[in-house]
UniProtKB/TrEMBL annotation:
Transmembrane segments: 37-59, 139-160, 195-215, 247-266
Membrane topology reported for the UniProt record: Multi-pass membrane protein
Family membership: Belongs to the OXA1/ALB3/YidC family.
Protein's name in the database: Membrane insertase YidC/Oxa/ALB C-terminal domain-containing protein
Organism per entry: Eeniella nana
GO cellular component terms given for this protein: mitochondrial inner membrane
GO biological processes: mitochondrial respiratory chain complex IV assembly; protein insertion into mitochondrial inner membrane from matrix
Length: 309
């Protein structure tokens, strides 16, 4: 008898069914609210981001704060480890000179300055990971926000795309009110913006948000921008380049997309920018010697700042 191997095929049909059902819920919620689409879409965006992604962002920011407070401890380990390894290597070499030599050289006998730096660096990162784990601020937890925010953005974009009829060429909007509940010259939100005001606004907000995050990365020394004699880019430098390219692509797509969909993208990027500004104000990460927002309220009377931020 021949054994037949059962093949499993991945299907996105269940996911599309859920998203199509979500489209129905959005349409029903809009009808129940009585708010025109031009106001309903930003309100829906703020509501979703506030209830789904904002709590995760706050949790992640507190983890960043805890990590930054622990980094000086981890960095202080490096010179101690180097001295310890150098002392062990020197001690082993002294034994060799006294005649306690063996035919096979031990690892400590072969320690050089380069090896000491590599071993000390590996040990420091190992202890740093343990330190973060003991304080419940592991780096993998910082992937939770993009793991939730990106699928949410894609899902809502798909649902609005279906509502506006942009999913197929020549199709009409599922909700006819999209053609009448616009604002200003954009009375039909199922059509693209003929004057490109929305795509330009989207590009400005997206770029401002990205540059703010890039400046944060510079302060945390995650990039090589502003560092002299640094020819080797970091992973974050690559992310910066890809992000700027994706913003240009998003703007180009927005010139052809329905105004309702672009309005959601603008609302989402505006929320992200405001969220980052407020978090840097009320949940700041310390970037010694830099600080994003300088407040004189915490200074005593007559105090003079040594560093101008």
């Amino acid at each position: 008898m021949r054994s037949h191997q059962q093949l499993r095929h991945f299907s996105i049909d269940p996911i599309l069914e859920v998203l199509n059902q979500g489209t129905t819920y959005i349409e029903a919620l809009h009808a129940l609210s009585g708010i025109p689409w031009w106001g309903f879409i930003p309100i829906l965006t703020v509501a979703l981001r506030s209830t789904v992604t904002l709590p995760i962002a706050i949790y992640q920011r507190k983890g960043f704060q805890k990590q930054n407070s622990l980094r000086p401890i981890a960095n202080a380990m490096s010179p101690v480890l180097k001295i310890k390894l150098a002392a062990e290597g020197q001690s082993e070499q002294m034994r060799t000179r006294k005649g306690e030599n063996s035919p096979v050289k031990s690892e400590k006998q072969q320690l050089t300055a380069d090896k000491i730096m590599i071993i000390a660096s590996k040990e420091r990162f190992k202890r740093q990971r343990k330190l973060f784990k003991d304080n419940s601020c592991q780096s993998w937890k910082f992937m939770m926000l993009p793991a939730v925010q990106i699928p949410l953005w894609v899902s809502v974009s798909y649902m609005l795309r279906v509502l506006t009829g942009w999913s197929q060429i020549g199709s009409k909007p599922l909700d006819s009110t999209l053609t009448t509940e616009g604002v200003g010259y954009l009375h039909d939100l199922a059509l693209n913006d003929p004057y490109f005001v929305l795509p330009i606004t989207l590009g400005i907000l997206a770029l401002a948000n990205a540059e703010w995050n890039f400046a944060t990365a510079d302060m945390m020394k995650l990039t090589t921008r502003g560092v002299r004699n640094s020819l080797r880019p970091t992973a974050f430098d690559t992310i910066i380049t890809l992000t700027r390219g994706s913003i240009i692509f998003l703007m180009a797509m927005a010139t052809q997309a329905p105004a309702a969909l672009v309005l959601y993208w603008i609302s989402s990027n505006g929320f992200s920018l405001c969220q980052n500004l407020l978090m840097d104000r009320f949940l700041p990460i310390r970037y010694t010697p830099y600080k994003r927002f300088y407040s004189a309220k915490k200074l005593s009377k007559g105090a003079v700042p040594l560093i101008k931020y």
